[in-house]
Amino acid sequence: MIKNTEENMLKFKKYINQRKENDLDIIDLVKYLSSNHSFLFKDALEDSKKQKLEQIIDSKDSYLLILVDGLGYYKVQSLNENSILKRACKYKLNTVNPTSTACILTSIFTCRYPLEHGVFGWWQYSKKLNKNYYPLLMQTKDDEKIKPRDIFKFDSIFDSFSSKVNIYMNRQIINSDFSKVFAGKKASRYGYYSVRESFEKIQKNINPNVKSFNYLYIDGLDNMSHVYGIDSIEVQNIINEIERGIINIKRKFENLKIIVIADHGQTTMNSMLYLNQNNDYSKYFYALPSIDTRCISFFVKDEFKDEFETKFMDEFSKDVILFTKEEIENNNLFGNGKFSNIANDAIGEYVAFIVNEKFMVCDKITYEDKMFTKGNHSGLTRYETTIPLIVI
């Protein structure tokens, strides 16, 4: 058992209790919405959760599911009382861990938890392929392309839908390999240049007489939160655009059920930790650290485990909780049950969570790291792990 500080373990227990208080998570929501469109999900959700979601959402033939990257529950609660997003926020959900976009989006399109699908964050390492890579970019750190099936082992749930599926994403990513995997083989994909244009395209494509599932991914808010901070005017401007789009589309399609969620929230950063500032930890590793900057997986050689634990905790115990892979599994942090073979291939011997308002850079420090990380995610605070369920 790694000797984490008592103060940090109390923070961890607080997170566990908070997660238990939220009795619904993002996978529950996806199962519920999918049950109206696919026979695979008819009995996928336990009755108590299904009844609760029925009370909140009230089933409709057609949905518009909007995922706003980085729009956490507590950010919504901080909005002006006139905000349609705040007024229509019906519930708070747990997202999955790690709270990194690649992980959560994979959980959505596979309807599986991370310990099963094995995509954990922005950076990954495959023991089988012996490659460090970016799942969203589907390429290695050396710019070598990776085949989708080498990363994503499960098909998109949208392939099982009997109704029409429309996917809307920023034009820069709509034709990326990841977007194609996300949408599957049957869904129609549409790109847009602005939030305003995304809603205009949705209005043109929706047929009120045809049952459909519509998914809109809005990515700009997360980046603005990283660069300018979660309470910046840049973030508020995007929220205003989203609200205008929702009001306009609701006027035209009164019976369209609009549901707004997020993949994760963000929390404010006040400083950076650099892994190799005082010690060269790279000599302990057989692969580069992975996942993200507030949840980091370390691939440590067997002969160096004790030395790594000692040095790492001596230097970072104030700001970090360090778990073994087994402790991650036993605490059900990445989903309930055992790591699948797929997940085992991508997870290291240790996982560290940054518990204070800091983030850790494990590779070469860049100018952007120093200057442009005012908000961040992938940690365990309620601001990162709690997302809104907004129903309009």
Tell me the count of domains: 2
Strand line-up of the largest beta sheet: 2-18-9-1-8-6-7
Shape: globular
What composes the largest sheet? 7 strands, mixed
The CATH superfamily title of the largest domain: Alkaline Phosphatase, subunit A
CATH topology of the largest domain: Alkaline Phosphatase, subunit A
For the record, the CATH class of the largest domain is: Alpha Beta
Strand content: 15-25%
Main structural class: alpha/beta
Instruction: Provide the low-confidence segments as ranges.
Output: none
Radius of gyration: 21 Å
Characterization of this structure:
The protein is of the alpha/beta class. The chain folds into two domains: 6-15 and 268-376, Gyrase A, domain 2, CATH 3.30.1360.180; 22-267 and 381-391, Alkaline Phosphatase, subunit A (3-Layer(aba) Sandwich), CATH 3.40.720. The chain is 37% helix and 20% strand. The protein is built from 17 helices and 18 strands. It has a seven-stranded mixed sheet with strand order 2-18-9-1-8-6-7, sandwiched between helices. It has a four-stranded antiparallel sheet with strand order 12-13-15-14, with helices on both faces. α10 (195-205) packs parallel to α12. The longest helix is centred in the middle third of the chain and has 20 residues, at 233-252. The mean pLDDT is 94.
